[in-house]
Design a protein that fits this description.
- The complex is a heterodimer of chains A (285) and B (260).
- Chain A is mainly alpha-helical and 285 residues long.
- Chain A has a single domain, classed as MetI-like fold.
- Chain A is built from twelve helices and no strands.
- In chain A, helix 4 runs antiparallel to helix 9, helix 4 crosses helix 10 and helix 9 runs antiparallel to helix 11.
- The longest helix of chain A has 39 residues.
- By secondary structure, chain B is an all-alpha fold.
- Helix content of chain B is 84%, strand content 0%.
- Chain B has eleven helices and no strands.
- In chain B, helix 3 packs parallel to helix 6 and helix 4 packs across helix 6.
- The chains are: A mainly alpha (285), B mainly alpha (260).
- At the A-B interface, helix 2, helix 5, helix 6, helix 9 and helix 10 of A face helix 1, helix 4, helix 5, helix 6 and helix 8 of B.
């Protein structure tokens, strides 16, 4: 559930829905799992609350959970926090949107022309693993703490996630469907629209989900390291000024943001793929 | 005939990179733009900057920290993942907590870890562990969970239990998933290696590159960016090589399933 997909190989559904392996996971009544999960979260809070009091960890380094929550409360009342959150979300959203559009367009074009695909393969394989943080110095020099320097990093990192998945999806097209479309004289556009796109969509969605997470990481990294305005920058400021509870509160916020991004991406995936095998079987199970 | 196909393949693989390289070379050839020096200048400074001495004093420490953090993350992630994956109750309790930890963008943990571990090597290794652990852990959990029931029952009826069961059934069955997690973790690890050095360090690749950038040594900075790129590429190549060896059985199985 958490991982189908970084690689084209493992992204294919064959491994996941073959045989009885996947089904029994949800056998037990759901509420028990939910209660246990809540207990787990409560346990984490309790540990974080008690640890500093026992003196095992200094409260200067790890403030009790109650203090972190209180600090979070005061943060939420400050307009500066909401501005920072807005900045982060803007960078994330814009960067992700650009990366997804560019990745899908480039992927569909490259994927539907075999020659292009063969020619670009080695270049993509070379550029993809280049760590986007290598671009940080370049971004700083060119754009300073501007939104654009954030976007440069975010787009570079997320673009590859999308295009690789799109290419994998385009390759997965059923030859029979393709031949059928040809014999019904569907044009290039018709084939892309009715054959290629539905086949590639599950892969695209996996790519978008991965890209959404990566984009958030890179947005916050850019803010933290470069100093572009946003939550990451707030963390850096809090750290430098020794406001430890604030650091923890902000880290918690970024974590919640990450969870929200994850859930939202999965919801979008479900909606877009409601017709697809993997989602349909999951619903009935 | 074969010579022709080899030539064709070579052209396909090397053609576009060669074109791009040439374009870059000539587009910047007479460049007076301060930020985009000619490629010739960058390559020249590459040779000058990244001498054996520099590699030993800056690149090797970075890579050692990456290796230490990454291996530690693999051990902890797989170990915990086995425990969590095999016990349903444990999984139910820990899943939301793990999801939360995984969702925290790893770089924000640097300030927190700096509180505990200062700014030395320990901090950097811990940062890498804290970022790399989650994808490995969660993928291990998923992999362990999806172990084929029939195989599990077979093992039980043959009396294969304990360590043998773990080694021959659970780890084996989960290994494709574990490797997926490890691949995700590797790219996160490289990012964290660089960033932790940008934060606070006295040596290392990230430190050196930022140092060049701050002193406006532009060609040197570009050469560092280039080196990082090459490093990322080589590490992913190395990973793929290792994966193909470890998962040869799995890829073969998949191929056989696809073309029966």
């Amino acid at each position: 559930m958490t991982s189908p997909g970084l690689t084209p190989v493992l992204a294919e559904p064959a491994g996941t829905d073959s045989g009885p392996g996947g089904a029994p996971a949800r056998r037990g009544p759901l509420p028990v799992a939910v209660l246990r999960g809540l207990a787990g979260l409560a346990g984490l809070v309790a540990v974080l609350e008690v640890l500093p009091h026992t003196g095992l960890v200094s409260a200067d380094y790890l403030p009790p959970a109650s203090e972190t929550v209180r600090t979070l409360g005061t943060l939420l009342a400050e307009p500066a926090f909401w501005t920072a959150l807005g900045d982060t979300l803007t960078g994330w959203g814009l960067g992700l949107a650009v990366a997804v559009v560019a990745g899908v367009v480039a992927g569909v074009v490259i994927g539907s022309v075999p020659v292009l695909r063969a020619v670009t393969a080695s270049t993509i394989e070379f550029l993809r693993p280049i760590p986007s943080v290598a671009l940080i110095p370049v971004a700083v020099l060119l754009y300073g703490t501007d939104l654009r320097s954030k976007l440069l990093l975010v787009v570079y990192a997320s673009f590859w996630q999308v295009i690789v998945q799109v290419l994998a999806g385009m390759q997965d097209v059923d030859p029979v469907a393709e031949d059928t479309a040809r014999s019904y004289l569907l044009g290039t556009w018709g084939r892309v629209r009715h054959v290629l796109w539905p086949t590639a969509l599950p892969y695209v969605m996996t790519g978008v989900r991965l890209a959404a997470t990566v984009a958030l990481i890179l947005t916050i990294t850019a803010e933290l390291v470069i100093g572009a305005p946003g939550l990451g920058h707030e963390i850096a400021v809090a750290q430098v000024s020794g406001a430890v509870p604030e650091v923890y509160a902000l880290v918690l916020v970024t974590g919640l943001l990450g969870v929200a991004v994850n859930l939202a991406a999965r919801a979008v995936e479900r909606r877009a793929l409601h017709w697809h095998q993997s989602v349909r079987t999951e619903v009935t199970a | 005939m074969t010579a022709l196909t080899v030539a064709r393949r070579g052209l396909l693989v090397l053609g576009l990179p060669a074109v791009l390289f040439t374009v870059w070379w000539f587009a910047t050839a007479g460049s007076t733009d301060f930020y985009f020096p000619p490629l010739a200048t960058i390559l020249e400074s590459f040779g000058k900057v990244w001498t054996a001495e520099r590699l030993l004093s800056d690149v090797v420490p970075s890579l050692l920290r990456l290796a230490a953090g990454y291996l530690l993350a693999v051990v902890v992630g797989v170990g915990l993942g086995l425990v969590v994956g095999m016990r349903r109750a444990v999984r139910d309790v820990l899943e939301p907590v793990l999801e939360l930890f995984r969702a925290i963008p790893p770089p924000v943990l640097i300030p927190v870890i700096m509180l505990f571990a200062g700014i030395g090597d320990t901090m950097k290794v811990l940062v890498i562990v804290s970022g790399c652990m989650w994808p490995i852990l969660l993928n291990t959990v998923e992999g362990v969970r999806a172990v084929d029931e029939v195989l599990g029952d077979t093992c039980r009826s043959y009396g294969i239990t304990g360590v043998a069961r773990l080694r021959h059934l659970v780890l084996r069955a989960a290994s494709p998933q574990i490797v997926t997690g490890m691949r995700q973790a590797l790219s996160i690890g490289i990012i964290l290696m660089v960033i932790s050095e940008m934060f606070a360090a006295s040596n290392g690749l990230g430190f050196t590159i930022v140092q060049f950038q701050r002193s406006f040594a532009i060609p040197e900075m570009w050469s560092g960016v280039l080196l990082l790129g090459i490093l990322g590429f080589l590490l992913s190549l190395l990973f793929r090589f290792a994966e193909n060896r470890v998962l040869a059985w799995y890829h073969g199985l998949r191929r056989a399933q696809r073309n029966p």
